[in-house]
Every structure is written in C-alpha cells, then in structure tokens.
Design a protein that fits this description.
This protein is about 70% helix and about 0% strand. It contains 3 helices and no strands. The protein has 2 domains: about 30 residues; about 30 residues, no CATH class.
C-alpha cells in the first residue's frame, strides 16, 4: 500500500524528536525549532512570511477538493 510513505513520515517524526530532545538537553550547543525560527525571523523577517506561503500552498495542494475524475474533459481533468 503506502508503506514507504508511512516509513518516511515515522522517520521524519523520530528525527525531529531526537533533535529536539538533544536541543533541550544541550541548550548551549543547539537550538530548538522554535528558537531557530525566532532567530531566523529576527535576522530576516520576510522568511516567516515565505515559509507561511510555502506551507499554505502545500495545504491547498493536498486538501483542496479537486477530483480530476469528476472534471469535464479539457478542463483540468
């Protein structure tokens, strides 16, 4: 089925948890994700807007109610 995608998602979640745990254990050596985003926003405020557009575009892409099978011929289907 979609085993490969499930494995990738679990791996990504696991790596995120490992890096966050390391950052909490060693705050002098590593930033958490929220601290990194804050620092990035301080140095380049436009980055937060661009990341918001990126993730907004992905959400529209994944969750927009568009079904090619139901479109009339020649109109995006």
């Amino acid at each position: 089925m979609n085993t490969l995608w499930i494995v990738w998602w679990l791996l990504a979640i696991g790596l995120f948890a490992v890096f966050e745990r390391y950052a909490f254990d060693h705050p002098d050596r590593c930033n958490t994700l929220s601290r990194f985003m804050w620092s990035l926003g301080q140095k380049w405020p436009l980055s937060i807007a661009l990341l918001g557009m990126l993730f907004g575009g992905l959400l529209v892409h994944f969750y927009w109610n568009w079904c090619p099978a139901l479109m009339p011929a020649g109109q995006g289907g």
